[in-house]
Amino acid sequence: MAHAEKPSILAGLIGSGIQASRTPAMHEREGDAQGMRYLYRLIDIDALQLDIDALPRLLEGARQCGFTGLNITFPCKQAVIPLLDELSDEARGIGAVNTVVFKDGKRIGHNTDCLGFAEGFQRGLDKAPRQQVVQMGAGGAGAAVAHALLSAGVERLTVFEVEPQRAQRLVDNLNQHFGAGRAQVGSDLPAAMAEADGLVNTTPVGMTKLPGTPLPVELLRPALWVAEIIYFPLETELLKQARALGCRTLDGSTMAVFQAVKAFELFSGRSADAERMMAHFHTL
Predict the structure, then answer these.
(1) Which residue from 24, 83, 182, 200 has the highest number of Cβ atoms inside 10 Å of its Cβ?
(2) Which HAMAP family does this one have (predicted)?
(3) pTM assigned to the model
């Protein structure tokens, strides 16, 4: 009896300091569960002693080596855009890419972070008040999260970012998409926090390699909800302090899983089992 050829997928993740990433295991185990040959490799620019200038070479190398596609993470989600042939509507709207598919000789950029965060927010903070929200960070992940927040009905988003121009670009993009005045660049963090219903951290501060909190913990209070997109560690210092106060919190696991679910579908052309991938994530 002839066997149908198993689809084989070769994917990878390009980013900085990604040795602790759970993404390869999630993809490979889901591939195993579906009877596919599925390999997922880390392309860590820190471990390779490269910097972001190597991105064009890495992307072209992966394409030439027959990769199906790549995930893109910090600090490459915006830098990758000029290197692509096409963008999905979502990636174009957000101005950040976390998934590149090589197809018919083209490099096509997608964004699955926005959907990933939206799913986590809906599951973890469903009835949370959302008149005023403070977001720390306006990078590639921050852009996707901001789009998800305003789509989920946040009335006013105040964005704090160490690079003022980057914050302004994101805020202009959001107001163009969602209507004037929905987003603003923050200048007075204590005042914004005093009025906020919720806080989202999209900066890398709190990761294992960048310990600490993205803002002074004295600005937290019990009525606030706090969301985090970092997932190594799953309990950042920010979440630990917020939970000690009794704040409602959302950790980075749901976004990590659901962005991977969607990326798996883009790479393999098959639906992924989200609950199974979530279970995989939590065994790692």
Answers:
(1) 200
(2) Shikimate_DH_AroE (MF_00222)
(3) 0.94
